[in-house]
Design a protein that fits this description.
- The protein has 3 helices and 8 strands.
- The strands form 2 sheets. It has a 6-stranded mixed sheet. The protein has a two-stranded antiparallel ribbon with strand order 7-8.
- α3 links the parallel β3 and β4.
Amino acid sequence: FMPNMKLVYPCLKINFQQVFESIEKYKCNYIFSMPVNMIYLMNHPLKPRYNLSSLKILYTGGQAVSAEVANRLKRELNLERMILVYGMTEILIVSYKSYNLNNFNEASYQYGIGRLIPGIEYKVIDRKTGDLQYFDIEGELCVRGYNNTKEYWNE
């Protein structure tokens, strides 16, 4: 992250008016949100009433992002960067992140979802045999590192 970061992290049940007010009031420069929520934000009737110009970086994940949506978000919010992330709850959310993509197109995804996070081990195995899979062969992703949780809360 960067110094002087001001972050908007909308909860699962988003109140878009509160998100808009927070961005404007605190001059937030980062926002973390799922693509579907960002689409709702872009189309929300209250959006034109608020100054969202402080936003510079969007971290997004949880579902695929089309090039059309990515470019629209970047253009309409005048973002400097949009970073696509991939992760799972049990690995404290992020295990991969995209390059700093300036212009999105389908080729952006040609070689996968991004860079591995340093300090974490990854492998892809055959779901039935547990054997290590080779490049470009479907399988189950296994992740091990400092970010793995030991167990789920209350389980």
